[in-house]
Design a protein that fits this description.
It is a single chain. With about 200 residues, this protein is of the alpha+beta class. It has helices at about 15-40, 55-60, 75-80, 85-95, 145-200; strands at about 40-45, 55, 105-110, 115-130, 135-145. It has a 5-stranded antiparallel sheet with strand order 2-1-5-4-3, with helices on both faces. Strand 1 and strand 2 (about 55) form a beta hairpin. The radius of gyration is 35 Å and the shape is elongated. The model has no long low-confidence stretch (mean pLDDT about 85).
């Protein structure tokens, strides 16, 4: 430790303030990292015009890669997107950077290392612009929503099956009512026919 100590009540020097700010920043980054690990949120950091895309370890784990060997690029991200989602995601991001959208938020499928596709929700925001207002840096997150999507799909399938069963039950009930009504109508006609013959014979 330094032998020099500030006098009681003395204002901290610039170096001391800078050191304290760096400690606070490091503490905040550590808390953010722990929070993302606990919630399973991946972080990406992109500078338009550059090929490399920064990402945290959680992105690698989401995609089934070892964090120490994973390196993200713009081309790799686009190639990893599901073919049916690729054009939509690129257009959504391009529109956001061009100022045609107020925010960047979309859901899409990405291929993992195993070859299987999983659903992700991505949200991003421009955090740095040049003097003319053009975006220089965009930071965003990934959240794996596969279980939510699959649960919604199962719910939709069950709902469709329920509607189909209800429709079949209505048709079945309608047939039964039609048959019963037909039988009753036939009986009424038979009774009327009998009454008619009795009336004729009595006359």
């Amino acid at each position: 430790p330094s032998r020099w100590q500030p006098l009681p009540g003395a204002r901290p020097t610039l170096r001391q303030r800078l050191s304290a700010t760096e400690r606070d920043l490091q503490d905040s980054l550590t808390r953010l990292k722990l929070a993302m690990q606990s919630t399973g949120i991946g972080l990406w950091d992109y500078r338009p015009g550059q090929e490399r895309v920064g990402s945290n370890e959680e992105v690698a784990r989401m995609l089934g890669h070892a964090p120490e060997t994973f390196s993200e690029t713009r081309a790799a991200f686009v190639e990893r997107l599901h073919p049916e989602d690729r054009a939509f995601v690129r257009a959504r991001f391009r529109d956001y950077l061009g100022g045609l959208r107020a925010d960047y938020r979309c859901e899409f499928r990405m291929r993992t290392r195993s070859g299987a596709y999983r659903w992700f929700r991505s949200v991003g925001q421009v955090v740095e612009r040049d003097a003319a207002g053009a975006p220089l840096r965009v930071v965003g997150t990934y959240l794996d929503i596969t279980e939510q999507i699959e649960a919604m799909q199962r719910l939709e399938e069950l709902s469709a099956r329920l509607i189909a069963v209800q429709e079949e039950e209505r048709r079945h009930l309608a047939r039964e009512l039609h048959d019963e009504f037909g039988q009753q109508l036939t009986a009424i006609k038979f009774n009327l026919h009998g009454l008619g013959r009795e009336f004729v014979s009595e006359a």
